[in-house]
Amino acid sequence: MKRTVLKLFCAFLFIFTVHGSPFELLENYIENFQYNLDHLKTYLSSKPLAYSASRQLPEDHPKETEEYDFIIIGGGTSGSVLANRLSEIPEWKILLLEAGEAETDAAKVPTMHNCLKSPGSPLTWGYYSVPQNYSCLNEVEKRCFIPTAKALGGTTAINDMLYTRGNPRDYDLWADTGLKGWCSISLSPYFKNIEDAHFESKIDHSEHRYGGPIHLESPRDYSDMAKKFLESASSIGLSEIDLNGKNSLGIGIPQLMTKKGERFSAASAYLKPAEHRKNLIIKPKTHVTKIEISDHTKEARSVQFIHDGHLFSATASKEIILASGTINTAKLLLLSGIGPEEDLKHLKIQPVKDLKVGQNLIHHTVFPLTYLYNYPPSHEAEPPFYYSKEIDYLRNGKGPLTSNGVDLVGFIKTEYSKGRMLYPDVELLLTSSQHEELNSEQAKKKKINIYLILLHPKSRGTLNLQENSIDHPLIDLKDFSDPHDEDINTLVSAIRTVQKLMQHLHQRGMNLKQENVYNCTAYTEDSDDYWKCAIKHFSTSFGEITGSAPMGMDKDGHIGDSVVDLKLRVHGIEKLRIADDSVIPVSISGQLTAVKMVIGEKCADLIKEEWYK
């Protein structure tokens, strides 16, 4: 194990060292660049890093540190935003605690994203679900791997860089539950203001802005396959759209969080510009173990954390803000005594506040369809790492290494999206093999993968602590457990839409064949039951989970199953807020990156309104 970890370290170190180096020995340089990328992919595709099943906290008493005005727990997507915005006030002292490290230069190469979020990656937590009854049945022990970032910048350091805001109807549904200030009209300025949009594709310019912190651009490596798809999609009513424009249904060219062909994470956008500020202290490789809450005043005052093997305590004079993501935020709340009272007592944790933490998980389940085809890809003449293309990436930020593999993104509405004319319930991600594999032999296999993402599941999962509460939590996604089978029927309906699209492509000269890898021989091939079997066995997760600490409060002040109010304050606890995807009460029609940054921006404004007089 030490040897393999050393090799991994060397691979990362080499990429970090040579990035931007002069081309004195060009051929040798490129061969080494290729070797290290190949080695990194091979390693990260192997077994996960081993860790102790029963980890223990240090036994020494916590060492006191300085007092801060605000302590932010989690330096991910939302936490990066908060750290920047709060440290704009020079008299405020901010402490940012993050379990992971800074992203490496390897993470900036878009093609590497599948490696970076794999089970063995040091940039993920290595979370798995408990064994499932209706999903991931083909996985080992029927457990879904849940990619969850462990790095400054969070998900934006490892994901596929896709940028979607969600549908305006999503946020209007939030407002319908009594969350004033969270409707689409209220949030639209936030979405626009964070953008620095540089698109070459078709967009609605009135919906975008230039000059914000988040650099967005069109793909720099665009496939011929995407052009064919756009032409055929229009024939079945899927017009080309701006994915973040006014039209909600259709298909469009991806909008990416990249800059000159490199990943542009939330850390690059928010932490890098603020790192020189003397009032912002950033502590990576720091594990927060508990939020200390007064029994008498119910006020959050301090946090305990492990750094360099020692236990420390830090105090916040104003507020503590949790921004650790859906899984880790819920886990820390439970460890701190905030959650279902009976569950906490069973684990011998003193209950502080009885709230439904971890009882409302919303998972965007994913199902892949694969087709074989004979249409020649634009890069077929040479393998992906042919020298000219490596030079193109290193010198110009262009070529296949700049691709995240996604050619097109679509939003469709099935018959199960009832009563909502333009409200999508399934997202489509189209990838073709010309981008997908680093290995040249694998790249010769001409494939189209279409990932179907269930946007608004009716099923709800749970998150609970283990008996040894410091261990990874018990995550039960409970995919396809809804009583009327709407979730699985929605995906079957989406499969039929994709089949219509593929039929049109076939008629335009592409010899497409659907790959049968589902082993559901007990059912008639292509029947609805066949596809239900396939979905249950081969569904997977992209780590898009929300709702473990949902925001909510009706007009009469009833909190129901919610954990935070409309100002992101934890019910019944003073000076404690949550600002991440765990607070999302109604699922989003798309990826979560944009809304997480908007939650961070809005939380910063709410805090400034209260404390900056």
TrEMBL record:
Stored InterPro entries: FAD/NAD-bd_sf, GMC_OxRdtase, GMC_OxRdtase_N, GMC_OxRtase_C
Lineage: superkingdom: Eukaryota
Gene3D superfamilies cross-referenced by the UniProt entry: FAD/NAD(P)-binding domain, Glucose Oxidase, domain 3
Glucose-methanol-choline oxidoreductase N-terminal domain residues: 149-172
Keywords recorded for this protein, A-Z: FAD, Flavoprotein, Signal
Listed cofactors: FAD
Binding residue positions for FAD: 77-78, 155, 288
Alphabetized Pfam families for the sequence: GMC_oxred_C (PF05199), GMC_oxred_N (PF00732)
Signal peptide (from-to): 1-20
Family to which the UniProt record says this protein belongs: Belongs to the GMC oxidoreductase family.
UniProt-recorded name of the protein: Glucose-methanol-choline oxidoreductase N-terminal domain-containing protein
Organism, as annotated: Hypothenemus hampei (Coffee berry borer)
